[in-house]
Amino acid sequence: MLLRCLILPVLWCGLLVPAFADDQEIEAPRVVSALEQGLAAELGAGLGRNPELAIALYCDAGTMGSAEGYFRVGRVLALGPDYIRNAALANAYFALAARLGHRAAVDAFDQRVEAAALKDDCGTFLAGLEKQRFDLDGYLAGLTPVKRGIADLIRRLAPRHQVDARLAVAVALVESNLNARARSPKNAEGVMQLIPGTQQRFGVRDPWDVEANVKGGLAYLKWLGNRFGGDWALVAAAYNAGEGAVDRYQGIPPYRETRDYVRRVMFFAGRTALRPGQGHRSAR
Q1: Which residue among 25, 175, 189, 243 is the active-site one?
Q2: Fewer CB within 10 Å: N-end or C-end of the chain?
Q3: Distance CA 14, CA 160 (A)
C-alpha cells in the first residue's frame, strides 16, 4: 500500500486506505436497473448509442451509492467519442469509484492527468436529461423476451386499473428493470418492488407471481393517482417515499433519492422535466 501511494498521485493515497473487497457489493435493484439502462445507451442496445444518456443513467447509479456507476461514468468520459471525452473529469469519477472500493477504477486512473474538481457530483449530466427524450419502445425491443412480455402485461393491465400505461412501465423500469426476481435490501420484491406492507394492503399473496405483483403495483398507482389528483410527479414521489412524506412536505420530499427517482420516472414516462408548479400540492 505504501509503495503504491508513493507511485500514484497524492489524490490516490487517501482513496486507497479502505481495503478493497474481493467482490463488489451486490447492488440493489434500482441500482442494477440504472446500470443496465446506462449500458443499453452506451452500447446502443435497443436505444441508439447515446453517451450523454449513458453517463446520466450511470450517475443515477452512482448517486445511489454504486461504485460501479461512478466507474462507468469515468469509462465513458475516458473512452467515449471525442466530443465527450475528458480525461481529467474521467479521473475524478474513477476517484469516486475507488473511494467506494472499486478495484478496476484504480487501474483505470490516468496518472498523467490531474483529476478535475467535481462541484456537483453528476448534477450537470443529470440536468441534461431535460433536453432528451427516452425511446421507450426502442429500449423495450432490446430487452429479453421475458422482460418484453412483462412490459406487455403491464401495458395490457394498466388501463383496467385506470393507470397510464407508460407511467406504469416507467415505474417498473426504475424499480427493477422488469426483473421478476428482484429483491431489495429493504425486502421490496418483484417487478414492482412491493414491500410486505404494500403486498398485504393490495391483496398480493405471492409477490413472485408476476401478474399478481404487477396488479398490486397498479392498484397502488391507481390509489396514489386518486390521492394526488393524477399528478405523476407526486405519484412517483409517493411510490418511492410514501404518501405520508409527500403530505408532510406538501410536494416532492427534499430527499435526493426521491427527487432523482421522480426525475427518472418522468423521463422514462416521456415527461423529461417538471413543469413550474408540478410536483407540489396546493394547500387545502
Answers
A1: 175
A2: C
A3: 55
Share of the chain above pLDDT 70, in %: 85
Domain boundaries, the chain: 27-130, 136-268
Name the CATH superfamily for 27-130.
Answer: Tetratricopeptide repeat domain (1.25.40.10)
Residue 217 CA to residue 5 CA, distance in Å, equals 50
Q: What is the pTM of this model?
A: 0.85
**How would you label 81-107 residue by residue, b for 16+ Cβ within 10 Å and e otherwise?**
eeeeebbebbbbbbbbbbbbebbbbbe
d(Cα 134, Cα 268) in Å, to the nearest integer? 6
CATH class held by domain 136-268: mainly alpha
Checking if the pLDDT of 278 tops 60, the result is: no
Q: State which amino acid sits at residue 213.
A: N
Residue 79 C-alpha cell reads as: 473512452
User: Residue 194: helix, strand or coil by DSSP?
Assistant: strand
Helices (H), the chain: 2-7, 10-15, 29-43, 51-63, 67-79, 87-99, 103-108, 123-127, 136-141, 145-157, 165-176, 196-201, 210-227, 232-241, 243-249, 256-268
Q: Is 175 tagged catalytic?
A: yes
Q: Please tell me whether residue 280 adopts helix, strand or coil conformation.
A: strand
